[in-house]
Amino acid sequence: MNTKLIKTEENYRIALSKLEMIFDAPIGTPESDEADVLGLLINEYENKYYPIEAPDPIEAIKIRMEEMQLKQADLIAEIGGKSRVSEILNKKRKLTVEMIRNLAVRLNLSAGLLIRDYQLNS
């Protein structure tokens, strides 16, 4: 195993190519061990140089609604009337603390994600 730290974009591309070649190595082989180490190194590099931002609260709600196959009307109990749900999901109105608590439970989303600031649409 000749694995090195990933310090440059070129190192990163080489590591990705190498991982692609040995990804399906049988468990317990030296190639499998190298794939595990490469995976960790690649993950560390990507977290540092290609971080993925969490979606804003409304996008997170919409994503979870899609995953759970929910419609706007399904959130009336958590947000309040049909028009209020529409206002929230169209970023015409901000979430309240009570809405955040209700949505965190109903959608199994982190309250920390839901309290993040976001811009309203004018």
Characterization of the model:
The protein is an all-alpha fold and 122 residues long. The protein folds into two domains: 9-49; 57-114, 434 Repressor (Amino-terminal Domain). It has helices spanning 9-22, 30-49, 57-67, 76-79, 82-89, 97-107, 111-114. It is elongated and about 60 Å long. The protein starts with 8 loop residues before the first helix and ends in an 8-residue tail after the last helix.
State the domain count: 2
Helix content: 55-70%
Average pLDDT rating: 94
Radius of gyration: 21 Å
CATH topology of the largest domain: 434 Repressor (Amino-terminal Domain)
CATH class of the largest domain: Mainly Alpha
Reported CATH architecture of the largest domain? Orthogonal Bundle
> Spans of 5+ residues with little confidence (pLDDT < 50)?
none
Instruction: Report the strand count.
Output: 0
Described by strand count, sense and barrel closure, the largest sheet is: none
- In percent terms, what proportion of residues is strand? under 5%
| Distinct helical segment count | 7
Secondary structure layout:
Elements: H1 9-22, H2 30-49, H3 57-67, H4 76-79, H5 82-89, H6 97-107, H7 111-114
